[in-house]
Amino acid sequence: MTDQAAGIIPFGSTVIHSEPVDCSKPINRTNIRGKTIVITGGASGFGKACFEDWASHGANIIIGDINDKAGTQVVAQMRASTNNSNHHFIHLDVTSWSSQASFFKRAASLSPHGGIDCVMANAGVAIAQENAVFEEPPDYSKMDHPPQPQMKTLDTNLNGLMYTTNLALSYLSRNPGSARCQVGQNTGTRDRHLILVSSIAGLASLPSQPIYATAKHGVVGLFRALRMTTPIKHGIRINMINPYFVDTPILGPMGAVVLAGGGMATVPDVVEATTRLVADQGIIGRALVIGSKTSQEHAKAMGLELETTDQAVWDVHADDFAQSDLFVRRIIGVTNLITQARGWGGIVSDVVRKVSGATWKTLGY
């Protein structure tokens, strides 16, 4: 029985995605030079750390952040240390579409070549009080006008990232001098690359943080929806990072206390993982988890295989999602079999029934 006879439509040769990332390979940082990279939330945390690293290797970095003071300071510092005036700060509120649209337009105009090579959708917050009120709400039944719960975490981490992604697809696909992404094409000055910043909370449950976990799961869903279609439609490669808990401002002092003594990821490891995605243009449609460095003994005990002797970065897509993807493909396969069995007659019958029902309803019957 063929795949199509079984209701399965094979991916075929049109799919553009690379094999699992080999974290033992050295990173070709010279491939970062000359690229114009846009980072949302670039004044602190991962965004700032990536800015500093990539700028030191010759990239032109444009950051957006709601914190004007911090953003202005970090750009001034990097201009001085790299002797490159092509680093810029632009005020950005990612929860505002108009703010993001203005940010992208100005970023492209400030780029030395008039376009954007890479977008890192990084801006995010984690507001503990929002999660606490969501999980332990007051007695709304005793209120005439119950207050609307605050959802800034969701608005910033998911809705804001959706705005960034939509604008990135528009600008990256029109990047002057860029070519469509290709598996195995590892170098090039111009690029079309979108990096989505999710979290370990986008792959696993995170008790006491339901809003944050929902937002990060949404980022993973967006990545999985775009990872195959975006390279085909726009020639844009899309990748994702999923850091474990890291001691950055988003974690907050209480988060650091709760995790004290446990294994955590580090900012340098997050930067290295993200740099690998930026520097290797042959990496398409992959996601990396960044955790604490582990020994061969611990890795083997957990069923993992080390590629290096001191590994903190692991490829998580698509292999670890194979079972859920298989389930989805089986459901689609059943639908395909039903559609094939009913043929065009079934389609026509459904359309006629729908149109007839709507007509009778319009006439008041």
From TrEMBL:
Pfam families per the UniProt record, alphabetical: adh_short
Lineage: superkingdom: Eukaryota
UniProt-listed InterPro entries: NAD(P)-bd_dom_sf, Sc_DH/Rdtase_CS, SDR_fam
UniProt keyword annotation of Secreted present: no
Protein name: Uncharacterized protein
Record PANTHER family: 15-HYDROXYPROSTAGLANDIN DEHYDROGENASE [NAD(+)]
Family according to the record: Belongs to the short-chain dehydrogenases/reductases (SDR) family.
Entry keyword set: NADP, Oxidoreductase
